[in-house]
Each structure stands twice: as C-alpha cells, then as structure tokens.
UniProtKB/TrEMBL annotation:
Protein keywords: Cell membrane, Membrane, Symport, Transmembrane, Transmembrane helix, Transport
Main location: membrane
Family the UniProt entry places it in: Belongs to the amino acid-polyamine-organocation (APC) superfamily. Polyamine:cation symporter (PHS) (TC 2.A.3.12) family.
Bias kind Polar residues: ranges: 1-11
Protein's name in the database: Probable polyamine transporter At3g13620
Source organism superkingdom: Eukaryota
GO cellular component: plasma membrane
Source taxonomy: Eukaryota, Viridiplantae, Streptophyta, Embryophyta, Tracheophyta
Organism of origin: Nicotiana sylvestris
Localisation per UniProt entry: Cell membrane
Membrane protein topology class: Multi-pass membrane protein
Transmembrane residue ranges: 35-55, 61-80, 149-168, 174-196, 250-268, 346-366, 372-391, 411-427, 433-450
Chain positions covered by the region annotation Disordered: 1-31
Single annotated GO MF: symporter activity
Biased amino acid composition, Low complexity: 20-29
Amino acid sequence: MTAPQISSSPQPLLEDEEQPNTPQNPTPTKKSKKLALIPLIFIIFFEVSGGPYGAEAAIGAAGPLLAILGFLIFPFIWSVPEALVTAELATTFPGNGGFVIWADKAFGPFWGSLMGSWKLLSAVCNLASYPVLCLDYIKLVFPILSSGFPRYIAIFLITMFLSFLNYLGLSIVGYTAVVLGVLSLCPFWLITLFSIPKIDPSRWLSLGQEGVKKDWNLFFNTLFWNLNFWDNASTLAGEVEQPQKTFPKALFSAGIVTCFSYVLPLLGTTGAVPLEQGKWTDGYFADLAAMIAGNWLKYWMELGIVLSVIGLYEAQLSSCAYQILGMAEMGLLPRVFGVRSEWFNTPWIGICVPTLVALVVSYLTFADIISSVNFLYSLGMLLEFASFLWLRRKMPNAKRPYQVPLSMRGLLVMCFVPSCFLVYVMVVAHRTVYIVSALLTVFAIGWYFFMEFCKTKMWFCFQSAEDKVDDEDL
C-alpha cells in the first residue's frame, strides 16, 4: 500500500461519506512495509526527546527546583496541546507532508510552502545538533575529540553513517528505535535507583547557588528543545498502518515515556548530589553516574548517548525525508525530490539534502544550534495552531477519526497559552538568530514564487503529482 499523493493535500471525509478504498499513486511504486504502533511510539519518542541527554543545562541555568517544575509543568502547557493538535490533524489528513498539508488546506499553497520551509529548516538544524551532542559526551572519554580536525572528522563520519541507516527503510528505522529507546534509557533508570538511598529532598527546593545569575534564555530554550517536535511524526502519516487509529495511541504512549524519562533522573540526581551549578552542562549526567554508582555506569551512559543519538537522528531524518517527499508530491518542490530508491523504496534525495545541510550546521556550537531551531520552529507552530483553529471553522463537518474534545472557545484557550510561550522564545532570541531567520524566510518566499513561475511555464520537473495525471489524461 502506498501513500496518497494529491497536489494540494488529501481531502478529509465528510461525516456522511464512506471510507474510500486504498488511495493509489499516479505512478506505482514498490510497496513498503507500514509502521505499526510500537515502532511509531518510539519514533515519536526520539522525535521529541530520546532521553534526558542535554537536559542538564536547565539545572545550570535556573537551579533544581525550577528545572524539575519546568519538566513537570511544561508538558501540560506545551507538549499536550501540540500532541492533541497533531493527533486530530494527522488523522484527518493522513498523508506524507503532515503540517504542510494542514497549512495548505487552511490558508492555501503559499502558507503551506512557508510552513514547509520553516519546519524543514528547523528540523535540519535540529538534525545537526545530535552529532554535536554525542561528541559532548564522548569527549569525556576521548578528549582528542573535543576540538580541531579530529572533531570535524568525527562529526562527518557519524552523520554519514546515520544517514545511510535511514536509507535502508522506515520499517528498519522504527524497530531500531524500539531497541535503542530501551537501551539508551536503561542507565537513567539505574542512576535513579542508585540515587534513592542518597536523596536529600531539601536539595530539590534549591533555586540555585548564591551569586549564580539565572539564564532564562538558556533555561526556556532547553525546555523547549527537549519537549517539542511532537508534530514531526505527522509527515510519516502516509507510511503508517491505520494512521487514524494508530496516531492518537502512539502520541499518548510516547508522552508518558517522555515525561518520566526526564523527571525521574532529575529528581534522583539533584537529590543525591550537592549542587555545583556550574557543572550542570551537556555531558554532566555521565559524571554524576560515576559519582553515584561508579565508572561502570558512566561508561554505560556514554554508550547510551551514542545509542540515543542514533535514534534521535534516524527519527528526525525520517521526518525530514518524508516531508520533502510530501512537498514534492504537492508541487512545492521539484518532483525529483520525491524520487524513491528502487531497492528500499526510501526517498533517497530527501535523505541526502538534509544530510548535507546538517553537516554544515553541525560545526556550530550546541547552544547556537538549538536557539536557531527554536526560533524557526516557533514560527511554524504559530502557523500550525492558526491552521488547526481555522480548519475547525472552515470544515466543521469533516470526518475526524480523532477530535480534541473541546469547543471552539476551549480550543482558543488551549492554543493561546503555548502561543504566548512561542512568542516569548522568539522575543528573547539573539540578534544573530533574527537575522538568520529573516534571511531564510525571504529565501522561502522567493522559492515559492520561483516554483509558481516554473509551473506556469509547464516545466515537467516542477509539476505536482496531480498535474502529471492531468497531462496524461490530456
């Protein structure tokens, strides 16, 4: 069974319409195995989190109490609304492209193209952060990888190897994510257990060491980076088995796993070890493992970050690749971007393009990367919330296999709170992030009008899948 391919987006069913038969592609392609529930849960987990690696900066920025409260409260004001929006729209429009389809159906192809550009750029930048995060842990064991030529070579080799794994197929990526998820979380369950006898609950109430200034920009960027991207898996909807039933279950299950994977290790480690706030930076969990349980757990945690990075990278690259595939099918990118491998039926050009961009971006620092990711992602999410609300009003009778159980007034409140946070993240960004984001947005707008010009010239390689069918009918 292949994914639906329609030039703008899949049409939702009305309440009185019957479920159509399996949609057919204009051009038959090799059949690929669909994603089942368990692999999808772990792909979403890796899209969003991958474990608490990288969460240490929240303690360093604002102290234990605010960090723990942040990871307890933030999922309810941000992650839950984003996941609910994703569950409704991904089951109403289950095609490759995800949020691009939603913006296109709500406001037209220009906004669909802009949504695709913002989300794709943020996802590719996010992709670049994973090899950097991996090396921040590995360098504790192999200091030679801290800087210079060895670090550049390591980033290149890690990136190319992980991209090749994605080329082998989405089903392989899904079941690999299950194994990697369990193995990468094991050292955090162990460090939590070993911390219990040493916990002093009063340490959880600390607002940070005296004289250490709070870094709110870093604090909120860390929370945001560790708990967003719930909607990225929507770009895989065309490759999921029974997406109308599978997506809501997968999102709910992944949310539970993600929340516990942050809160429990943070409670254990901050309660067991006296606070040295300056040490709470990326990679500090490995040092804590040595202090609490011994070097054996430190080495396991080092291995865990490598396994987690593999899962994070594979899930994120899959999302990028199938978003590119969906945009090519919709005519927002040249059709060549939707070409699939004859061997594995994977969108190999959609894999290569994010890989090359990620290689360039990965030579920035981890903090610079996540700041750029968050700003671009915030732009896309504001448009996504607007699309969600407008589609509820524009298509009230569309058949929604899953529907958020709130009235329009309730939906406005649900979207307003996280939208305020999105605006805050954008306001506190550095000037460099503004400049880069503005330039990328101008490029995205220019690209849309370039594509429209090419299609008016009837250039075959720039036509959408539906345009191609129309030409053949003529």
